[in-house]
Design a protein that fits this description.
The complex is a heterodimer of chains A (586) and B (219). Chain A is globular, with a radius of gyration of 24 Å. Chain A has helices at residues 2-12, 22-27, 32-62, 86-122, 130-149, 172-175, 179-208, 221-252, 266-300, 307-320, 336-364, 373-396, 398-404, 408-419, 421-437, 443-469, 489-504, 507-519, 580-584. Chain A contains 19 helices and no strands. Chain B has 219 residues and is an alpha+beta fold. In chain B, 34% of the residues lie in helices and 27% in strands. In chain B, helix 1 (13-44) runs antiparallel to helix 2. Classes of the chains: A mainly alpha (586), B alpha+beta (219).
Chain lengths: 586, 219
């Protein structure tokens, strides 16, 4: 099946291409690589905004109700001479989470690397539906513009948290936010369309267009992760879209899906939201796990430990992610008996994550480890995921969750997991930059970026566990209003200083990115001596990716230090002669 | 880290803290084990000239071991947690004292049954944000909300329960030490969320009787 489909595409798209004009090359491009780059820059732009919002949140928590330096220009009632009022504070954390989840991690990990890597790594010339792919980016950009526009509508942006719990979100009177919340809903519905288009494309491409010899179990783990992510997206997003439509109807058309005075049920929103929301967590983290697996194997010069276990643990996570949503609702008023059931399923989903962590360790064991910048960031991801995974066990235990639910313990936990993804994101950018842009980034600067980011990330997020143990609620505007939180305030100040330094630690990255794009050393085809197919294409790959002939795959992606060859890597498409018969049988 | 836990003054709080500590020690041990191994591997297996990485695709026995051990530990933790959870949230003991708490933006409305011990009668006593309860008695709280979701959080009693509009949710506790304990709202409920706070007064029998006499008669 995959052979003939790939052959069809090879016929349909010849190796040589007509020159396209500026607009069709850089703007309305149907080339998966350009669309990937567009998603990358969209995500990085949103990362700057999301990061600035985080700094303002931290300022307020460190030095409550004092003026944020440089923000006295913001008009009232959004800020008062630089002082953040409570309403604006609620909008800040709502938009910080919304942007980081939907407009940073998803566009970069799924949008950019999904688009860029899938055709290159399975050995085909483009996505199955290139025009749909282009549309996916432009629809996503519209969603982003709608979301950012809420900063400028009367009443300000949504202020009911990224989880938008009804009834707070269902009536303008409860938050004082009218169009900010409506547009927030509309933007996410539009973004859902963008992701649906992308996921249909990813699934179709991976199922039908793998190069000859690229069986499912010869796919790199990052492709496995993107495949599973796409399936989760396809199934989870319609649930969110339906819930968002109901919420918008409650707000604008007078329905009462979530409003008890009209016979509605506030908890229905939570069930629908988390039925989407928990698979969403894995949508965010699976591509990070996949990329980490590839990078760890490459720079350990060693096959990934337990390839099949790695693939099956991701499949297990995908199935289990549908039956754990209730762990967000232990103290919501949901039947406590259900809480017990969700506790059990949540404990079980920790097992595949444990398998992945141990297999990453196994990959390092006996390796020949090259400490390149992608490797350092991948190791940083593993170290953060370890902490985030372990801290999740506290919440899974229902009695412990009674105490730590809605405290900074949760904030610490999900930042170690979700903000930890940023390490996999940087690892991926440093690793695939030569292929993305045909140039190398500066390695010493990248290492400096890693050291600073790793240190200040941990100094920012680890102390949040202590705040949580102390009972510090999340989403409060001024912790010093509470007597029992006053002894914890020095920790808040410490975290704020660390967070500001974490933000400054990104300067080396920005410099490196710009420098790399403009003046970086020209990259060779395979600068890391890696095995997967993208490194067989030129850097950057031309339109159509692979010259005249599509590569033929003879083996799995992780044949590092194989005894069959003298050098310590063996590309998937390198024909040795010995395996020719084996390859034909596939 | 655990020394930052607020003092516990409820009967079931000890069990919750016990589980908290058990998980803390288990995860702490796993964290140290994995981190030490990782650092060790990074040092031992750093690239050196002339040494080639071990060509290995895995080890099934090892993988089964590190699948089964965490699975067993996690399931045991789930069963240990289930009994405490049942005690706190499912099987409330018979009440010695009842109070209704209705959350609204941004206050706790407290209603006591009054001298006739019945709610909904004329002698009900209503106040805001201050709850008085007797020490060492089982207290039932019926939680309601008038507008949005709030969360009734008593850090010192290890108790948290959302108040959901349209529902009456029963929670219980038995405080073991007289004192004044903070009662913040733990669920985002609007611009006044921060600062929505009440106080739980756990009174000795004498204090409680005195308070009942002084305040309920006014109502």
């Amino acid at each position: 099946m995959s052979d003939s489909a790939a052959a069809d595409v090879a016929h349909a798209v010849p190796g040589h291409h007509e020159e396209l004009g500026f607009w069709r090359t850089y703007v309305f491009s149907t080339d998966h690589k350009m669309i990937g780059r567009q998603f990358l820059f969209l995500g990085l732009f949103m990362l700057i905004i999301g990061g600035l919002l985080a700094m303002m949140i931290r300022w307020e928590l460190g030095w409550p109700e004092t003026a944020v330096p440089g923000f006295s220009w913001v008009p009232e009632p959004y800020m008062y001479d630089g002082i953040i009022p409570p309403q604006t504070y609620n909008a800040l954390f709502t938009m910080h989470a919304t942007l980081m989840i939907f407009f940073v991690v998803m566009p970069i990990m799924v949008g950019c690397f999904g688009n860029f890597l899938i055709p290159l790594m399975i050995g085909t010339r483009d996505m199955a539906f290139p025009t749909l792919n282009m549309l996916s980016f432009w629809v996503g950009l519209v969603a982003g513009i709608v979301m950012l526009s809420t900063f400028f509508v009367p009443g300000g942006p949504a202020a009911s948290g990224w989880t938008a719990y009804a009834t707070l979100s269902a009536k303008a009177a409860y938050t004082g936010v009218d169009w900010g919340q409506n547009l927030w809903i509309i933007s996410l519905v539009i973004l859902g369309l963008s992701s649906l288009m992308g996921s249909i494309n990813y699934i179709t491409t991976i199922v039908n267009m793998r190069a000859p010899g690229m069986t499912y179990f010869r796919m790199p783990l990052v492709i496995w992760s993107l495949f599973i992510t796409a399936i989760l997206l396809l199934l989870a997003l319609p649930v969110l879209t339906a819930a968002l439509a109901m919420l918008l109807f409650d707000r604008m058309l007078g329905t009462s899906f979530f409003l008890p005075e009209g016979g509605g049920e506030p908890l229905l929103w939570q069930h629908l939201f988390w039925f989407f929301g928990h698979p969403e967590v894995y949508i965010l983290v699976l591509p990070a796990m996949g990329a980490t697996s590839d990078i760890l194997s490459t720079f350990s010069r060693k096959p990934i430990f337990g390839y099949h276990a790695m693939a099956f643990s991701m499949i297990a996570i995908a199935f289990l992610s549908w039956v754990v949503w209730g762990h967000h609702m232990f103290v919501s008023g949901m039947n406590p008996l259900l809480g017990t059931a969700f506790m059990l399923s949540t404990m079980v989903i920790a097992v595949p994550s444990a398998i992945k962590t141990f297999n990453w360790l196994g990959t390092l064991w006996g390796g020949s480890i090259h400490f390149t910048s992608p490797m350092l960031f991948a190791l940083g991801f593993v170290s953060n995921f370890l902490i985030g995974g372990l801290s999740g066990i506290f919440m899974a235990s229902t009695p412990v969750d009674i105490f730590i639910h809605d405290t900074y313990y949760i904030v610490a936990h999900f930042h170690y997991v979700v903000a930890g993804i940023i390490f996999a994101m940087f690892a991926s950018i440093y690793y695939w930059f030569p292929k993305l842009f045909g140039r190398m980034m500066n390695e010493p600067l990248a290492k400096l970026h890693f050291v600073l980011t790793y240190v200040f990330f941990n100094l920012t997020f680890f102390p949040m566990h202590i705040l949580g143990v102390g009972g510090h609620m999340r989403r409060i505007y001024n912790p010093t209003q509470y007597v029992f939180l006053q002894p914890l305030q020095p920790i808040n100040v410490f975290i704020t200083v660390s967070a500001l330094l974490l933000a400054l630690s990104q300067i080396p990255f920005v410099v490196n990115l710009v420098w790399g794009l403009v003046a970086g050393r020209k990259a060779e085809k395979n600068p890391w001596q890696a095995n997967t197919l993208e490194w067989s294409a030129a850097s950057p790959p031309p339109h159509g990716n692979f010259g005249a002939a599509i590569p033929v795959v003879y083996r799995g992606p992780y044949e590092y230090s194989s005894p069959e060859v003298e050098e310590d890597y063996l590309p998937q498409d390198r024909r040795l002669g010995t395996e020719a018969t084996a390859a034909r049988s596939h | 880290m655990m020394s930052w836990l607020p003092e516990n003054v409820s009967t079931f709080g000890e069990e919750i803290d016990y589980l908290f500590y058990v998980i803390y020690y288990i995860t702490g041990a796993v964290f140290i084990l994995v981190t030490v191994l990782m650092l060790l591997f990074l040092i031992l297996y750093r690239r050196r000239e002339g040494r080639r990485a071990r060509y290995s695709h895995g080890n099934t026995a090892l993988e089964i071991t590190w699948t089964v051990i965490p699975a067993v530990i996690l399931v045991v933790l789930a069963f240990m947690s289930a009994s405490t959870w049942g005690k706190v949230k499912r099987h409330a003991p018979p009440s010695d004292f009842q109070v209704q708490v209705t959350a609204k933006q941004f206050n706790w409305e407290i209603v006591y049954p009054g001298p006739d011990r019945k709610f909904g009668t004329e002698d009900d006593f209503q106040t805001e944000n201050d709850i008085h309860v007797p020490v060492n008695k089982v207290v039932h709280v019926v939680l309601k909300s008038k507008d949005v979701i709030h969360s009734f959080f008593l850090p010192n009693l290890r108790l948290k329960q959302d108040a959901v509009p349209g529902r009456d949710i029963l929670v219980w506790f038995e405080a073991t030490k007289p004192g004044k304990y903070e009662l913040p709202c733990a669920e985002l409920c609007g611009f006044g969320h921060s600062g929505m706070r009440g106080w739980l007064y756990v009174d000795t029998p004498e204090q409680f009787e005195k308070w009942v006499k002084e305040s309920w008669s006014q109502g």
